[in-house]
Amino acid sequence: MAYNYRGPRTKEDIIEFANRVAGPLIRPLPSQQMFEHVQKRHRVLFVYVGVESTLKEKFIEVASELIVYTYFFSASEEVLPKYVTLNEVPAILVFKDSTYFVYDEYEDGDLSSWVSKERFEGYLHVDGFTLYELGDTGKLVAVAVIDDKNNSIEHTRLKTIVQEVARDYRDHFHRDFQFGHMDGNDYINSLLMDEVQVPTIVVLNTSNQQYFLSNKKIENTEDLIQFINSILDGTAEAQGGDGILQRIKRVAYDARSTVVSVFKSSPLLGCFLFGLPLGVISIMCYGICTADSDDGSEEMTRKDVIDPNVSDEGSDEEQDEDKTRENSSEVTDEDQEEKDIMEKKKD
């Protein structure tokens, strides 16, 4: 069977992925010592407890699909830590965040969806890749955007508030929210196409690219809970989205960001990449404009050449008419003189 690796492109993560898919889908845990050893090595692990059943068949089916993301184990009830109590067996448990949670088919629904949501810890250090993976869970992501290098009270306070809500209010929000923090606002700015102040808390909807910002400053846990509840009941205003206007805005933002990044990293390369095409286009436009003006001047020149001939021809005709008139007048004068001489002879 072939598996596609979709994790971070680091040496450690690739080696872990290879070791995970190289072994069996369901790894047995025969003793408490082995269970403790595995629990120390992995922050999240799914364990099937019990004998053969239809639930185990579903567990194996889900493991074959999601082994690329997490580990799957099987154990007897005696191997589990003493603090684990089960109402019935067989059962499926997830161990994470220093505790465990039991899968309930009636409340949690499909097993594959439950594993996809629970394969993350309750509180994460969120980066671009993690945020992309969280899109498969269908959860909203509440992120404290802080500066990890800044140890001021305001930065640590926001991070602590999000951690407390993720830990103490899991039963209220874990089905709808994933909590974490992000170092710096560079990635979140590109995602929201806006400048986000640091520190702040942003709630992201990765399914439709919407986001929520609190109208007031979050000072304590109660403020964050109130903000989350306003999102759940629909009173909080959603910004962003994936509509046509937002897509056009995204194209323009990405183009501007690309140009700015190129000029920041290498000004000479930026001048060459963008200056050369602009220069060629300018020359082409200039050539087109000058060609039109030249055609117009040629037409005017042609008209000027033709018009003098027409005027000369007109003047020649007028001169001929004048000569004809003069000749006719001369002829009439001579006739009159002849008539006068003839009358005198008669007298």
Short description:
This protein is of the alpha/beta class and 347 residues long. The chain has helices at 11-22, 32-41, 54-66, 105-108, 111-118, 128-134, 153-168, 170-173, 186-192, 221-232, 244-265, 267-346; strands at 27-29, 45-49, 71-75, 91-96, 99-102, 123-125, 140-146, 177-183, 200-205, 210-213, 239-240. It has three domains: 1-119, Glutaredoxin (3-Layer(aba) Sandwich); 122-265, Glutaredoxin, CATH 3.40.30; 269-347.
What does this protein structure show overall?
The structure is a single chain. This protein has helices spanning 11-22, 32-41, 54-66, 105-108, 111-118, 128-134, 153-168, 170-173, 186-192, 221-232, 244-265, 267-346, and strands at 27-29, 45-49, 71-75, 91-96, 99-102, 123-125, 140-146, 177-183, 200-205, 210-213, 239-240. It is of the alpha/beta class. The protein has three domains: 1-119, 3-Layer(aba) Sandwich (Glutaredoxin); 122-265, Glutaredoxin, CATH 3.40.30; 269-347. The longest helix has 80 residues, at 267-346. It starts with 10 loop residues before the first helix and ends with a helix. The model has no long low-confidence stretch (mean pLDDT 81).
